[in-house]
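Saturday, quiet lab. Running sequence design on the structure tokens for the scaffold JK sent over.
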């Protein structure tokens, strides 16, 4: 990417989009285009088409999506599949029509079959049944990936797709009903430390599932790196290469936050997939690896949370 290239970051206020924006600015890209949801509703085809025709971006980071943790995915199934399909269709088609040089589409490790062998290789896609709690979201993300792949084959576009593991970091959603596990743990332990009436801290499921967590600034650097270096029509995994159980994660967050009270597990809440560890050999072979350890990333996120209380 040329430093003066016009780069559109969709979803620049979200966890991923805001990190991509920070990374691009830090690397000297000075022609970055953003629109708030109020200014451009990405579920509206005509508005998206008009925006692309007027602005003619050279590169697009498709980091806008309806996202959430296990409970939001499980309970808002219609909204997750509808909004994500609409956003992807509108962005990919408008990018094709407006002659965008390259687009990067962001998927998620939940697109892989729930019982696939671990670690998850890119070629395991569509080889088995999906995890039930997030099937609508995963179907939408698989459709987005296939949109990119199909447009490349039929129209000769250069639309790549990347599959990150579970992400966390600053600017995350800390709402306890819709967030992912890491912001939920930070908030629950922090509030219970300040207010003993909120003890014991109640966590969901059994604590046995394992997750792979990548700090979002590392993910953003990988996305910019792949936008510059990767041109294949096959998705590529982005992760740390190792995972941790939710119970171990809870102990780590507890230590960082300094909560010493009791914890109980609510077994009526779902565990979700037992493991979704990504095989990142293809990414490593390209010369990229993550810089932020889980402990350092959680410390930075906790510090940000304390400075930006909800
Ligand atoms: O991060 P999380 O919501 O999403 O949950 P998934 C991960 C694990 O943490 C599950 C447990 O086993 C949860 O039961 N957990 C324990 C908690 N306590 C809590 C809590 O207080 N809040 C939350 N949220 N979880 C989502 C998918 O799956 O992850 C999406 O639904 C997407 O499709 C995304 O792929 C990255 O990793 O289970």
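Result came back. Writing it out in full:
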């Amino acid at each position: 990417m040329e430093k003066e290239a016009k780069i559109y970051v969709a979803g620049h206020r979200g966890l991923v989009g805001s990190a991509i924006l920070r990374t691009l600015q830090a690397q000297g890209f000075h022609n970055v285009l953003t629109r708030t949801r109020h200014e451009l509703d990405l579920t509206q085809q005509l508005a998206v088409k008009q925006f692309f025709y007027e602005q003619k971006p050279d590169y697009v980071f498709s980091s806008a999506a309806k996202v959430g943790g296990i409970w939001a995915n499980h309970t808002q199934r219609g909204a997750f599949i509808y909004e994500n399909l609409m956003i992807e269709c509108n962005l990919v088609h408008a990018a094709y029509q407006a002659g965008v040089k390259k687009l990067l589409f962001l998927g998620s490790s939940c697109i892989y079959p729930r019982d696939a062998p671990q670690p998850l290789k890119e070629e395991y896609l569509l080889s088995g049944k999906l995890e039930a709690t997030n099937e609508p979201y995963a179907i939408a993300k698989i459709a987005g990936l296939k949109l990119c792949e199909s447009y490349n084959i039929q129209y000769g576009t250069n639309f790549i797709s990347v599959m990150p593991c579970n992400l966390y970091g600053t600017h995350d959603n800390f709402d306890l009903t819709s967030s992912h596990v890491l912001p939920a743990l930070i908030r629950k332990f922090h509030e219970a430390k300040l207010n003993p009436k909120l003890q014991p801290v109640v966590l969901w499921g059994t604590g046995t599932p394992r997750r792979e967590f990548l700090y979002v600034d590392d993910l953003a650097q990988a996305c910019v790196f792949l936008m510059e270096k990767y041109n294949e029509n096959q998705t590529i995994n982005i992760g740390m290469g190792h995972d941790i159980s939710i119970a171990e994660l809870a102990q780590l967050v507890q230590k960082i936050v300094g909560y010493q009270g009791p914890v109980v597990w609510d077994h009526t809440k779902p565990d979700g997939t037992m493991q979704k560890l990504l095989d990142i050999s293809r990414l490593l072979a390209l010369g990229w690896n993550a810089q932020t350890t889980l402990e350092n990333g959680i410390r930075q996120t906790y510090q940000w949370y304390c400075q930006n209380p909800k």
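Notes for JK: Residues 7-169+213-241+277-292 form a domain with the Rossmann fold fold (CATH 3.40.50.720). Residues 69-71, 73, 108, 110, 133-134, 137, 166, 179-181, 184, 203-205, 209, 211, 246, 269-272 surround GFB (CB under 6 Å). Ask whether to fix the surface positions before the next round.
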